[in-house]
Design a protein that fits this description.
heterodimer, A: two-stranded antiparallel ribbon, B: alpha/beta, Rossmann fold, five-stranded parallel β-sheet, 12 helices
Chain lengths: ~290, ~400
């Protein structure tokens, strides 16, 4: 019985990692850059929906939509102002800029919303029967897992079946060649960021619903864990992010429960190292030979 | 391209800098005549009347994850300074607060900045880890320090110039254990603590040492894992704990309470002084904290004149209720003010003379201080404060005396 509770809390935790990892991996897979500000876009999404619900008394669904719109605009703005000018620069410059953007967002949020934590009321209004909640299964976790699956399927279909998706894959393989074929590379990458940031807003709402406290630094640690999950599953692979996130959450929970709460993180990262040693591209990652 | 990057970085820096001062706006001192804390000793050994403008420095985290503590303590100190200056007496203060982001290196930089500015007495650092490194510097430079809230014994160990306004961690752990033994005999106790935080570990060590076999489960977490407590809470429930002791700040405690409620686990939760502030979080569902015991020296809902006045002024400035950190910061400045007067210090004394005078005053038998966080506080030669913790029971969203 207790084992099941631990398993369920692992899955709940993992589903939050997975939903964040989807955004990370999508941007990496297409724009080939690590958007370290992703975690902070999540935090902004959390704050926007918090304000919409608490100050404007909007219904949760509208609040989520509003957060998605604001985050999409924010993501496109960040891409246009901070990353686009560096398109031809080395990847290190972009990486440092992403860290800069991350600090910018955190401090801006601190200026706007202050440093005291806000308590987030869950947007999930239905409650599961007591027999299930006693096992540690919350309605938030259920909604998170379901949204995660839906988003994963939708994203995979979008990337593989639509024209825009084809353009994205082309950009991912070779930007120069894609441009020669008449694909608007800038617009495609903006689109990627728009989708990634909209996902971040959903992740923010679900993260805050599950873990209640909202701070300017809320997004940073889950962001890093989700990044780990994305690498674990194979960065760039959409199903990989989902699998990686869930496994990471379950390993973390089990390690806490049966080995040591002190060593939980060390164990998680040790597993990551072992996986990368055996399979350097991650669980579901593709090996892409690089031409010299 | 480079220009855009440079511009972006410049903007980032500006925001980082601005965030530091955000919310710290000086409201054009609306201080009326203060009901100042009572100065209890009119020292017999008064060397003469204290006078001059003293430069007081403050160090605390005003940005980053621990920002609310630093902001609270520094605002509390600023209120006290403004009140004292408004009295127009011979002793005046100049106060300057520096941000340490809760990082030890940054705290030493902040300390050096203040030293260059001409700091004579330090109120800080607010959090334990930075305070340990700052106190080592201050000990070498012979600058008198009174920390509002750095409660580890490592802060004061071997440093005669370092004093604390808050309880030491072991003290708190012991009084928590004593309270539980008296009020919940035969209880099975679970402890959840943050094992990368000296404050939490310090309380836990003393607490577990005193409780012995009554502790049936111990769970830990770190800064990185403080959003998810499902495993620890489930394990505490599985171990049959009916009292859960939470030596931590209120943010992780909120998450624990929320999760415990969601799985229908309702033991008696007992918090420490870091739990103070839990009710003031925007959007907090007070029913989560129903029945929680908080052992804290300060409650913003107290009705004595001093507290009421302070709470009002703090709300004017920050738009929220002050927590224990703010009260500690306020008391620090007044304790220093009283000690300066008792010792008859003048602002032209060297740091070393000032430090020695303040040390002998603080440790003298005749010196005691009553303020927001306690009555008749006295200090031992190791820098520990003696005062009584009060246990508050949270009932219908307010602190009550059980």
């Amino acid at each position: 019985m207790v084992f099941f509770s631990y398993l369920i809390s692992g899955i709940s935790l993992g589903s939050v990692y997975a939903i964040i990892a989807l955004g990370y991996t999508m941007v990496y897979g297409i724009a080939k850059m690590l958007n370290f500000a992703h975690g902070d876009v999540i935090m902004v999404g959390g704050y926007i929906s918090f304000c919409a619900i608490s100050y404007l008394s909007l219904p949760p669904a509208v609040a989520v939509l509003l957060a998605m719109v604001v985050c999409t605009v924010l993501g496109v703005l960040i891409e246009g102002l901070a990353y686009r000018p560096l398109r031809q620069a080395g990847s290190l410059a972009v990486l440092i800029t992403a860290i800069g953007v991350s600090y910018f967002l955190q401090n801006a949020a601190q200026l706007i919303w202050g440093v005291t934590p806000k308590i987030y009321t869950s947007v999930v209004s239905f409650r599961l029967p007591n027999s299930l909640t006693r096992l540690g299964l919350s309605s938030e976790a259920l909604v998170t897992v379901l949204s995660c699956v839906v988003i994963m399927v939708a994203l995979t279909t979008f990337v593989n079946k639509t024209k825009m998706g084809k353009a994205m894959r082309a950009c991912s393989e070779d930007k120069g060649a894609a441009q020669l074929m008449g694909i608007n590379v800038n617009a495609t990458i903006s689109m990627t960021f728009a989708i990634g940031s909209a996902l971040a807003a959903i992740a923010g709402v679900l993260l805050c619903s599950a873990y209640t406290t909202l701070l300017p630094t809320t997004g940073s640690m889950p962001g890093i864990k989700a990044f780990t999950a994305a690498v674990f599953g194979g960065i760039g692979s959409i199903p990989g992010a989902f699998v990686g996130g869930l496994l990471l959450g379950i390993i973390e929970s089990m390690a806490k429960a049966y080995i040591s709460t002190d060593l939980a993180n060390a164990i998680v990262f040790a597993v990551l190292i072992v996986v990368l040693l055996v399979k350097p591209t991650g669980l579901l990652g593709k090996y892409v030979p690089e031409k010299v | 391209m480079k220009k855009t990057l440079a511009l972006l970085l410049a903007v980032c820096m500006m925001v980082a800098v601005l965030a530091g001062c955000g919310g710290n706006k000086e409201t054009a001192a609306p201080t009326e005549e203060a009901t100042a804390p009572v100065e209890e000793n009119v020292g017999a050994e008064n060397a003469g009347a204290a006078s001059g403008t003293f430069k007081i420095g403050g160090i605390g985290p005003m940005t980053g994850g621990a920002a609310q503590y630093g902001m609270a303590a520094m605002t509390g100190a600023q209120i006290a300074v403004d009140e004292i200056n408004a009295l127009g007496g011979p002793v005046q203060f100049e106060f300057r607060a520096e941000d340490d982001v809760n990082v030890a290196d940054t705290a030493v930089n902040a300390y050096n900045t203040l030293k260059d500015w001409g700091m004579q007495v330090l109120v800080g650092a607010v959090t334990t880890t930075p305070c340990i490194s700052v106190s080592a510097e201050a000990y070498n430079d012979r600058i008198f320090c009174l920390t509002p809230s750095a409660s580890s014994t490592d802060v004061t160990a071997g440093k005669d110039n370092m004093f604390q306004m808050c309880f030491t961690d072991p003290n708190q752990g012991l009084s928590g254990a004593q309270y539980i033994t008296e009020n919940f005999p035969d209880a099975k106790v679970a402890v959840i603590y943050k094992n990368d935080d000296a404050y939490s570990v310090g309380i836990r060590d003393a607490f577990v040492g005193a409780m012995g076999d009554a502790v049936v489960y111990e769970g830990t977490f770190t800064e990185d894992t403080q959003t998810d407590f499902s495993v620890q809470v489930t394990a505490a429930q599985a171990a049959g704990a009916d009292v859960v002791y939470l030596p931590m700040y209120y943010q992780p405690a909120t998450v624990i309470l929320t999760y415990a409620k969601s799985i229908g686990y309702a033991p008696t939760f007992i918090g420490v002084d870091g739990m103070d502030g839990i009710l003031d979080q925007e959007g907090f569902d007070a029913s989560l904290a129903e029945g929680v015991l908080v052992m804290s020296p300060f409650a913003a809902t107290s009705t004595d004149e001093l507290t009421v006045k302070f709470v009002e002024e703090y709300q004017n400035r920050m738009g929220q209720l002050p927590n224990q950190f703010a009260a500690d910061g306020y008391d620090c400045v007044y304790a220093i003010y009283n000690a300066l007067q008792a010792a008859g210090c003048t602002a032209d004394m060297s740091n070393e003379e000032l430090c020695d005078a303040l040390i002998s005053t603080f440790t003298s038998d005749s010196f005691s201080y009553s303020g927001l966080t306690g009555q008749g506080m006295t200090w031992s030669t190791v820098g520990e404060v003696t005062k009584l913790p009060m246990a508050f029971l949270i009932k219908d969203g307010v602190y009550t005396t059980p």
